[in-house]
Amino acid sequence: MRAKKMFGLSISLILINLAAIMERADENLLPAVYKEVSSAFNAGPTDLGYLTFLMNFLKSIASPLAGVLALQYDRPAVLAIGTVFWAVSTGAVGVSQYFQQVAFWRAVNGLGLAIVIPALQSFIADSYKDGTRGAGFGLLSLIGSIGGIGGSILATVMAGRDYWGLPGWRFAFIMVAFASLLIGLLVYFYTVDPRKTSPSHFGDDEDHESGSLPWTAVVFFTMWFELIGFDNSSSAGLNSLFAIGCASGSFLGGVIADHLSKYYPDSARIMCAQFSAFRASLSLGSSLQSFLKVVPPKHRTMIYAFDRAFEGSFASLAAPAVGMVTEKIYGYDAEGH
Description:
It is found in: Membrane. With about 325 residues, this protein is an all-alpha fold. The chain is about 70% helix and about 0% strand.
């Protein structure tokens, strides 16, 4: 089966990158409106960290489910299943009236992302040849970060006003839910699994469990900016600068790894991944090509899923830990004092 193209670009890769945009937008919605959610549900930083913990923990431990599904179904179908879970749960958070409801739907959201993320990563691994796979992963991260930036800006700016009697932060969740559902349907109907188009080439390697801990804790950035005096728009802008730096670093890391692998095929990607432990923004593009020399294409989704499970289950503890320190040691309360 031949992959369809539009203006010389693969429709499948266009839709996969759109899915990555919506996935990152969804992940960044709640941290962008922590302050408003805190006021709406009288929740402190520990409670907010608990919400992030639930999503990240489920996103991690449920990741092997993506591998199981990918063995039975084409990855576009797997992506569509995960997208439905995350879209429905995101919309449900927007209409929740109690904190316990928000917690439940964030857990369901994590389940949806657990299915989607490994499938996205293995799809990219099978769509690029050895010499360009690092750039492919880096580009996925770069484009996905656009969604993260957009989701964060959208939610932060909208949170400051009401829309047809609905608080802006709720309206942002509902908008992203509908957009995610639409992208999921397009992926299901118009994306062709690369396993059906051409044989895949084998690539390379990784390690980053401990490096994910601080990234989970930075979900409080927007709330912190707002509490120290920045308005919603300024907070969104500052957070976006940080995200742009991370996204650019991921793409650069992939390109560097591809170039060096021509001269050091057995060690270049390992060196880039280790360097990323010290310069974390270079991480994704150089490290997500893990295990490809020893894992056949059929099992790549499963391998990425288990990698997510090990990495994320530990990292998910960071957000509630930050919340507990903020309340127990520094005396923060739900009123922002």
